[in-house]
Structure formats: structure tokens, C-alpha cells
UniProtKB/TrEMBL annotation, chain B:
This is Sugar ABC transporter permease. Signal peptide: none annotated. Gene3D superfamilies: MetI-like. Belongs to the binding-protein-dependent transport system permease family. The lineage of its organism: Bacteria, Bacillati, Actinomycetota, Actinomycetes, Micromonosporales. GO terms for biological process: transmembrane transport. PANTHER family: BLL4140 PROTEIN (PTHR43227), DIACETYLCHITOBIOSE UPTAKE SYSTEM PERMEASE PROTEIN DASB (PTHR43227:SF8).
Length: 288, 328
């Protein structure tokens, strides 16, 4: 009996230790995100006070008001940068989704000679260090006369997001039972009709998931946006933010408010699709 | 015949096999055409271009637009880089940073993955959600927040160090007052903080992947080993690790590739491309090419060197994934 108590105490201690470690990990991972939001809601005197408060005692939206109504650069507000980013990201998503769907259908539905080569190429090009492509793509953009125009970024991000989009979508297309298409074909549907009425609606959820990844890729990108666009009113949000807080005494309140507005859409989208991210990246490493 | 799939048993297919085969053969290539054009034009062609550019002396944006000649210098750019002692500093920074970050990310990620597997359901969900937050945060804003945490007057870390008893702080670090301390001034401290930021961003992926791996192996093996009296250390190395070896292999390779070309976090933390002592290959290439005076050829040569290093690592990765695909 005494031994039983000792064992139980050991189990208890272990559980406490495990949960304690879990809390520490949660704190380390989530604290910066919390601190970003908390700071954005604090009035300046609280942000710059000698003893930081863990929770905003007098929450205020003044920093949000400041960045949304004030001009970061004469004549340009946060909203303009936000819209530039939205325009670039949404265009990338639409184009990349469309093109990827065609390729995914080819790979998932047909057996043809270059199929395996194409799949290998998809894997290989995803490993190209994009940082090494800034200089040649800058050359291409200059030659095409797209320098300082947002389409230069749409084009660039299309190239970056496409390989992963095809890789991911092919699984969704393959998951649609072939029998459905065959039945439609027997009923006399044309190939285009089968694609539009049967395959497309069934693949739509996968298309949404894929689109979110393309969106995040385009939304977060900094280096190319920094290099290909010169006029300040055409900056995307990440570029605007690096300029916005680059000065010596940083206005942390507005910076954290801007960071929060930039980050929240990504977090929401990300949480919707993160499961697929793991399975996509570790492609088949774990057998179920 | 109108089916998108090859289905030899449908009546339509049997009727006109020859015609059907011809159409089916062409369609997949048509569907691939836009993708091939984009991947070729925006990824593969530029990859060739960067190699080509590295053989020229390109100091003026007009040369890029095609208004001026491209003087051929052969391996001149490479000779200049490799002959510069600064390149060794950059290479050392890059390799040491990548190794440190891969090791730390793998250790922390694996520990968190194992932990998540042992926690109760509710606690595991809570911790995993928090971990996801770090993963989801964009590199840009994640880095900005860490920069704010290390702010030299009002940053939380500065306050924490100030809150240490003065005697202890003096004994450990040789100073008691941390207000105004330049956290980013010495290269070593800069890299330590950059490591913290990068590990914070990348350990969640490792943790979740390891967890997914653990969930896929039968747990009775672990229990049997534990009943036989094996400690956690032994269980991990004798059972978990061998079972998950393919997962670990891919994770190490992916992390290596990512940590070799860190750019955004460094650019934001250093506030641009002025901090030469902390340069790594990707930011070095960028700074040479785009900081005035521009040297596109030289930057291209550095980019080629970075690519060649990653090529070796990538070769390993592709071989692993292909092996997996074959096995499953």
C-alpha cells in the first residue's frame, strides 16, 4: 500500500512537470504575438514606462487611429499600402490557382511519359533559393519595362507559389473518385462540362487551401517588393513597414498596431490550413 | 471518350481506341503548358541568368536595360570574392549560423513534439495552438516584435535584466544598469538574438512534424520498452528515433536549406544592409548588387556560390523524398 502511494506521487510529479514544461513552451511561442497586440493597445505612457505592465490597464485604439488616418508618408496612408498588398496577393492567388489546377489535373488524372519528370522538377524548383533570383529577376523586370509597377511582383510571386500549389492540388484532384467523371462522360457530358460541373466543385475546398498558401507567400514577401518598386505610394505593406520603423527612436505603439493588422489575416488563414502544410512538406515521409 | 480519365472499360473507349488515345496523349501536355511556361520563365531561366551574369562586369542599371555593353570578365568576379578575406568571414557566419540554428531548432522541435505526445488532450491542444501562433506569424512582424522586446530603453528584456539583483547582474555580466545597452552592437549578440528569432519561427514546424510521426507509429512498442525498464533517453534512441529516421532526415535537410538563406529576419533586425560584420551569403549578395554603387555581376557570383552549396543539400532531400514516394 505504501508503495502504491509512492508510485502515485511519482506519477503526479511527472504530470506536473510535463504540464509545467507545456506551459513554458506555450509562453515562449505565444508571448511575442501577445506582446505585439498588447503593446498596440497601450497608451504611450504605458509603453515607455519604467515598469512594463503585462496587460494594458487603459486600452486605447489611438495607435490604430493614428496609422489608419495619419499619413505615413505625405499623401499616403496605411490603407494605401494595405490595398497594394491585397491587390498583389489576390492577383497572385487567382492566377496561380487557375494555372495550378490545370497542371494538377494533368498529373493526377493522366499517365503520360513526362509525368514523373514533371513531378521531380516540381520538387527541385521548390528548392531553388529565391534569394539568389533577385538579381536575374531584377534584370528581367527591367527588360520587360515592369520596374516600379506592381505587376512585377504579381509575376514574381506567381512563379514562387506555383510549384507548391501544383504539388498540393494534385492530391485533391486525385482524391475525387474517377467514377464520377466517368459516369458524367457516359451521360454525354463533354470534357469541359465534366471539368466544370464535376471536378471543379469537388476540388474547390482544396483550391481554397492552396490559395491560402499562395496568399501568404505573396503577402509576406519583402525582398523582391523592396527591390522592384521604387515609388513610395506603390510600396506593399512589408516594405512600407521596414521604412516606417527604421528610424532611431521608434514609435512602437503605431508600429505594433501596423504589425497586428498585417499579422492577423495571416494567422487566421494559416490556422485554417496548417494541417495540410505539414503533410505537403513532409510529403509521404510518414506512412499511415 | 469525353472522360478526363483513362478508363478502358467504358464502352466509348472500346469503340474508337485509336482516336481516343491520340486525344488523351495531347491533353495532359496542354494542361501542363502554362505551368511549364511560368516555372521555366520565372524560376529556371533566371537561375541560368544568374550564372550568366556572374561572368560579366555589371555596374550600371543601364546595362541591365540593354542600353550598354556587358564586358565579359570570365571568372573575374569569383576571383575577386574568393580573394577577399571578408568572404571567409561571411562564409563562416553563414555556416556557423546554419549549423547552430539547425541543431537548436531540431532539439527544441523534437522535445516539444515528444512533449505534445505525452500531454493530456486539452493541454496538448492548448500548447499546440500557441506553438501554431509562432509558426503563423510572418517573418517580418515576428522579427519586429523581437526587436521591440530587445529595445534598449523600454524593451521587456532590458527591463528583465534591470530587474535582476544588481550584485548578481554585476557578477554574471559585469554591469547592473542595462538601460541603453546596445543588444545588437556586437556580432555575437546580434547572432544570438537572430538565432532566437529564427528558432522561434521554425521550431513549430519540426514539433508538429515529429508529433505527426509519433502518432503514426504504434504506441505499444514504447509501452513495452518502458515496462521493460528503459528510461526515456533509451526509449528515444532505441525506438522512436529509428522509427522516425526518414522524418528526421527530411526535417534536417529542409531546416538546413532554410537556415542557409535567412534574409528577412536579418534584414529587419539589422535595419538594412549596413552591418557588414554580420553578413551572411544571401544578404551579402543582395548588398553587393543593390547598395550603391551597384555591382550586379559580383552579387550574382555570390548568389551562385550560395546556390551551389544548397544544391548539394537539395540533392540529398530529393533522393529522400523519392525513396519515400516509392516506398508508399
Amino acid at each position: 500500500m505504501k508503495r502504491g502511494v509512492v508510485v502515485k506521487r511519482g506519477v503526479m510529479a511527472k504530470r506536473v512537470a510535463l504540464n509545467g514544461a507545456g506551459l513554458l513552451v506555450a509562453l515562449f511561442a505565444a508571448f511575442p504575438v501577445y506582446w505585439m497586440i498588447a503593446t498596440s493597445l497601450k497608451p504611450n505612457r504605458e509603453i515607455f514606462s519604467a515598469t512594463p505592465r503585462p496587460v494594458p490597464t487603459a486600452p486605447t485604439l489611438e495607435h490604430y487611429r493614428e496609422i489608419l488616418t495619419g499619413n505615413l508618408i505625405p499623401g499616403v496612408t496605411f490603407l494605401d499600402f494595405f490595398l497594394n498588398s491585397v491587390l498583389v496577393a489576390v492577383s497572385t492567388v487567382v492566377l496561380s490557382g487557375l494555372v495550378a489546377l490545370l497542371a494538377a489535373t494533368a498529373v493526377a488524372r493522366f499517365r503520360f511519359r513526362l509525368r514523373t519528370s514533371f513531378l521531380i522538377m516540381l520538387l527541385v524548383v521548390q528548392m531553388i533559393p529565391l534569394e539568389a533570383l533577385v538579381i536575374p529577376l531584377f534584370l528581367m523586370i527591367q527588360r520587360l519595362g515592369l520596374y516600379n509597377a506592381l505587376p512585377s511582383l504579381i509575376l514574381t510571386y506567381l512563379g514562387f507559389s506555383l510549384p507548391f500549389a501544383v504539388w498540393m492540388l494534385r492530391g485533391f484532384v486525385a482524391a475525387v473518385p474517377k467514377e464520377l467523371e466517368e459516369a458524367a462522360a457516359i451521360d454525354g457530358a463533354s470534357r469541359a462540362q465534366t471539368f466544370r460541373r464535376i471536378l471543379f466543385p469537388l476540388v474547390a475546398p482544396g483550391l481554397v487551401a492552396t490559395s491560402i498558401f499562395s496568399f501568404i507567400t505573396a503577402w509576406n514577401e519583402l525582398i523582391f517588393a523592396l527591390t522592384f518598386v521604387n515609388d513610395q505610394d506603390r510600396y506593399t505593406l512589408p516594405v512600407a513597414m521596414t521604412f516606417f520603423f527604421g528610424r532611431d527612436d521608434t514609435a512602437w505603439g503605431p508600429v505594433m498596431a501596423a504589425s497586428t493588422l498585417f499579422t492577423l489575416p495571416v494567422i487566421v488563414f494559416f490556422l485554417l490550413v496548417q494541417r495540410r502544410m505539414v503533410s505537403g512538406l513532409v510529403a509521404g515521409a510518414v506512412k499511415g | 471518350m469525353t472522360s478526363l480519365t483513362q478508363a478502358p472499360e467504358t464502352p466509348a473507349a472500346r469503340q474508337t481506341p485509336a482516336r481516343r488515345r491520340r486525344r488523351v496523349d495531347r491533353l495532359p501536355y496542354l494542361l501542363l503548358l502554362p505551368s511549364l511556361a511560368i516555372i521555366g520563365g520565372l524560376l529556371l531561366w533566371p537561375l541560368g541568368q544568374v550564372v550568366a551574369m556572374s561572368f560579366f562586369r555589371l555596374d550600371n542599371v543601364r546595362q541591365l536595360r540593354g542600353d550598354r555593353e556587358w564586358p565579359w570578365v570570365g571568372l573575374g568576379n569569383y576571383a575577386e570574392i574568393l580573394g577577399d578575406p571578408f568572404f571567409l568571414t561571411v562564409l563562416r557566419n553563414t555556416v556557423l549560423f546554419a549549423v547552430a540554428n539547425v541543431v537548436l531548432t531540431m532539439i527544441l522541435g523534437t522535445l516539444v513534439g515528444l512533449l505534445l505526445n505525452r500531454l493530456g488532450r486539452r493541454m496538448a491542444t492548448f500548447v499546440a495552438s500557441c506553438v501554431m501562433l509562432a509558426w503563423a506569424t510572418p517573418a517580418l512582424t515576428g522579427t519586429i516584435v523581437w526587436k521591440w522586446l530587445f529595445d534598449d530603453t523600454s524593451g521587456l528584456v532590458t527591463w528583465l535584466f534591470n530587474a535582476l539583483p544588481d550584485g548578481l547582474s554585476n557578477a554574471l555580466f559585469g554591469r547592473a544598469d542595462w538601460t541603453g545597452y546596445g543588444w545588437f552592437n556586437s556580432p555575437l549578440m546580434f547572432f544570438a538574438i537572430l538565432t532566437l528569432v529564427v528558432v522561434w519561427h521554425s521550431f513549430p514546424f519540426i514539433a508538429v512534424s515529429v508529433l505527426a510521426g509519433l502518432r503514426s507509429v504504434p504506441s505499444d512498442l514504447h509501452e513495452a520498452a518502458r515496462v521493460d525498464g528503459a528510461g526515456p533517453w533509451k526509449v528515444f534512441w532505441k525506438i522512436t528515433f529509428p522509427l522516425l529516421r526518414p522524418v528526421f532526415g527530411i526535417l534536417v535537410v529542409l531546416s538546413t536549406i532554410w537556415d542557409f538563406k535567412v534574409f528577412t529576419q536579418q534584414f529587419v533586425l539589422a535595419g538594412g544592409t549596413q552591418d557588414r560584420p554580420t553578413f551572411m551569403l544571401s544578404i551579402y549578395s543582395y548588398a553587393e548588387a543593390f547598395s550603391p554603387p551597384p555591382k550586379y555581376g559580383l552579387g550574382a557570383a555570390i548568389a551562385v556560390i550560395l546556390t551551389l552549396i544548397l544544391l548539394v543539400v537539395t540533392g540529398l532531400y530529393v533522393r529522400m523524398v523519392l525513396k519515400q514516394e516509392e516506398a508508399s
